[in-house]
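ugh ok fine here u go
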Amino acid sequence: QDALFYRKVEYIAIIPRGFSEAYMSGSDCAIQKVIVPDSTSSYYVDMSIDKFLNTIRLHRVYGRGESRVHLVTAAIADLAFNTPVTMKSPGGANGYRHGYSYYFAYCAYALLAMIMTGVSSIMIAFNEPDLYLRNLSAPLPRRNMSLQLAAGHGVFALGCWGILVVGGLILNGKSLIDSGLAGLFSLNTLAFAVVSASIGFLAGGFVKNHSAQAGVINVTALGMSFLGGVFVPQSIMSKPVLAVAKFLPSYWFIRANDAIGELSRFTVDSLDLIYGSILVQLGFAVAIFSVTLLLGKERRGLYL
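structure:
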């Protein structure tokens, strides 16, 4: 007890008299123990004792009736075997993912929520019936007005992107710069900022008030983030979910982000994967923006 109190030992096993005979005969018996409270090492000692006794029991039950000495020798020989285990995980040559890789992955949700909020708020104001009809009667061609709106949304998206990139540099600083991946992370995030602006442009054409706006933003940002792999890694997603996620730009953003984070050296294959995913995101942006202009033309016909 004194040794336990002064932490000279953490585990004392008390083997009762006649334990060996009782255990070999299959009778109920137990090794008593006295441990330091909340000692983590006691769990490992318990596991070692259980493994030793269970191994002896297996040899006793399924063996050829060896003596105790042979049983102990066989158990020690069995427990001496080591099985090599290789742990494999994504994250480059050493399987390690840096913090900046996770930071830029979560930027997808932040960018989508920020840019959709700003762009859709502007579109709600411009789609007010009085202002909308006044703009229709303006001498400025509608296409030019839409392009100017898109340019303004692009500037806003660029500002949001810049804030997050600067935040990443401040939080990760030297490690991000020394990795040589800051440019690729920034380029991938910029492409998704363009996608976010186009989604906000589309949502702003349908949303009539700020209450509906909040619902659309939450559903879109959270839904795309979960399905695309922002919050749940794509590596643990099922194939059916990934098949659906491929129709979302967030999937391609995370695909490129993961590929950038795993880069240990620049190769043609790895860069093709990254740039290909970025181009797919830009393709989504062009398609969404074109659909928005088409729907705007149809809506304009309702007022004329």
